[in-house]
Amino acid sequence: MKLTSLLGGAAVALALAVSPAYAKNTLRWASQGDALTLDPHAQNESPTIAMNLNIMEPLVRSDRELKPEPALATSWKVLEPTVWEFKLREGVKFHDGDTFDADDVIFSIKRAQSKNSDFKDQIGSIKEVKKIDDHTVHLITTGPNPILPNQLLTIAMMSKEWSEKHDVVEVQDYKNKQETYAIRNTNGTGPFKLQLREPDVRTILVKNEDWWGVKNHGNVDEVVYTPIANAATRVAALLSGELEFVLDPPLQDLERVKRTAGLKVLKTPQNRSIFFGLNVGAAELGSSDVKGKNPLADPKVRRAMYQAIDIKAIGQKVMRGDAEPAGIIAAPFVRGWTKELDQRLPYDVDGAKKLLAEAGYPNGFTVKLDCPNDRYINDEAICQAAVGMLARIGVKVNLDAQPKSLHFPKLAKRETDMYMLGWGVTTLDSHYVFSFLAHTKGTWNATGYSNPRVDELTEAMEIEIDPEKRDAMIAEVWKILKEDNVYLPLHHQVISWAMRENVDLPIIANDQPQFRYAVMK
Amino acid sequence: MLAFVIRRFIQAVVVVLVVAFLSFLLFNFVGDPVNNMVGQDASIADREEMREALGLNDPLIVRFAHYVLNAVQGDFGMSLRLQRRVGTLIVERMPATLELVAASAVLALTIGIGLGVFTGIKRSHWLSRVILTVSLIGVSLPTFVIGICLIYVFSVLLGWLPSFGRGETVNIGGWSTGFLTASGWQAIIMPAITLSLFQMTLILRLVRTEMLEVMRTDFIKFARARGLSNRAINFGHALRNTLVPVITIAGLNIGSLIAFSIITETVFQWPGMGFLFIQAVQFADIPVMAAYLSLVAVVFVTINMIVDLAYYAIDPRLRATVGRGR
């Protein structure tokens, strides 16, 4: 009958199946989202940067502690307030054999500053790049820029000759009708070469034997990446032995992975902090039952809401212990962070109720909380927990949890009274936080907060070369922000990587694996 | 006959246009792709400029008109997420979905019809009762639960089958097939089973009901009186007469399989069109969504037309009425 012959055929297929033999030291890994493009200047997005920086390299790269260390530049120093001198590494070749020199640096920086590059704001302070000789360049900035090396950490160097040959001198324009060569092809100087790129299916990297740093290279010969969108399937693939490493195992499966023989979980605090933003600038809140005034504009109300949130409970129950309670909206790696600043106001429900009553809201008020549900770790669950906690002091929160495509436009249009946001500080410097979140004109400042002193200091620290003076400015801004409590800090995210016991891949706080460190035993 | 085909074709075009228009109405509510396209550093001015350039601020009618005009010339635009042509993306992903659908349709039809005939003929047999009860599982369990259970049993516990992907594929003139490699076959087993269970149950029960009906009719009694073998009666005569409703249901199901294999593809990381669509929804990648929904409409109307035409091949009674027009 048809059924038996079908089963018979299936049995034969299974019997014939042989596990494909893998090359020595192949690291197979997966995460939720693939890199969007292999053009290193097109998308300023973490998974894309992570993939590309294994193939291409910047002048200055992050080490394991996220501090800048020499990559394609061996040293750098300030010659004059607006001139930085970078000495380039000699004897470096691109994957296609071309030598790396100052022309490539000038080309790459110009390309990263071009109209369609997603990095142009990050290095907007570079006015000009001058070639002094084949291995020395001067970067001339518009004003003194003390943190220029930090801003170069994700700017990859491309080959001028290769780009001209393949017509990718321009970064892909979103209005283009055709895809450019650089989207699926690369030519870098990095520890791995691209062998195969099938977007959303598979990407294969092979070791670059001619890499300048190859003697410090781990022992991975091949890296095979497959995106697996479904969290359960991703974990299953690790458990079944089809993968060696999963970048983003879901929190609820971490215990399971730890208990499984042959697997381990690495954890580290991330340079991303999660917090609530409050609309303090509006005269009246659109989503509140309070008319004629804005309850969130009163610092007592904000302080009350802060102290009503039991972050320990959220950490234990929602985050299963994987979160660092935060007192400011910047993680410990960020310049300007201090332990004192990161101390939270005490959790005090009765005190909070008193503060609310003093402010004139003994019966509380209503407000709408906008929350993403697919962006941060357990974002919606954290919001739901907070709703319950705020209800205890009388603040009735209506939760609106939506996908990020719908959530973030609300912030952009300034149509939100209370929102959750997570901020990753890529330059590891407090100025990055202030300029986007605290400055009156900050792109992501949807609170309506406007403090002239904060604006003044933020603009001043951008061009202050003296580190002591600059640190004092940073400290003053944090003091003001902590008093004003416009942002209610929640926690710094903790990321977990799951991998086989015999894989030694150090976890890095920016969630971007560097496979040159990987050692497979 | 020709008039019939032409009329149906015109109706099909209207349906596709209406679907496309309704999709565009919905796109106002899917969110903002620009935020997903740029890093968090990008300035407000840049975002606005991008929104203008992509035409996201234009009124609905203008955007719809542009889309239709371009689509008839074969230009479905560029994916906002991947910066590649939408037409290329869909063509790249189509073989994966079509192979999966074909495999699960074959499974569902053969097992469904086979078991349907069996339970229809031997309806008091204990095996029939077991089959019917177990088949309820196929209808009531959601596909992602079935998929994950299969992964857990066959990949994690037993390690027999791969838990994700298509395995090695061979490219034959632009069509990447998984049927020519052992790993391709291994990879398609679980997704095909997951996708086929619902259909299988439906077809099984439908065939069973129809068989029960048909077996009671006079002409079957006469065939038996005439001494025809059981096989000739069951398959030659009875089954033939049950096929009209089965084909309708199977046809519609295949249409919905092609369109909505989304869940199965996501669970098994199967790089097909459904998976492309769900990623487009999450990103608010409007060109991909518009092209996909129009394609789905085309698929459905085509299948419906084929099903209608198939009636004539199967049921001689219908051929007589067509000549007189509707």
Q: Which consecutive residue ranges of chain B, at least 5 long each, have pLDDT under 50?
A: none
Structural class of chain B: mainly alpha
Spatial strand order of the main sheet of chain B: 1-2
CATH topology of the largest domain in chain A: Dipeptide-binding Protein, domain 3
Number-wise, the strands of chain A total 19
Distance between the termini of chain A: 51 Å
Main β-sheet of chain A: number of strands, strand sense, barrel status?
A: 11 strands, mixed
**Helicity range of chain A:** 25-40%
Oligomeric nature of the chains: heterodimer
Span between termini of chain B: 11 Å
- Total domain units of chain A: 3
Shape of chain B: globular
| Greatest chain-chain contact | A-B, 65 and 65 residues
What is the count of helical runs of chain A?
15
Shape of chain A: globular
Give the DSSP E fraction of chain A (strand runs of 2 or more residues). Answer: 15-25%
CATH superfamily of the largest domain in chain A: Dipeptide-binding Protein, Domain 3
* Low-pLDDT regions of chain A: 8-22
Q: What integer is the average pLDDT of chain A? A: 90
- The tally of helices of chain B reads 14
Strand content of chain B: under 5%
Brief write-up:
With 521 residues, chain A is of the alpha+beta class.
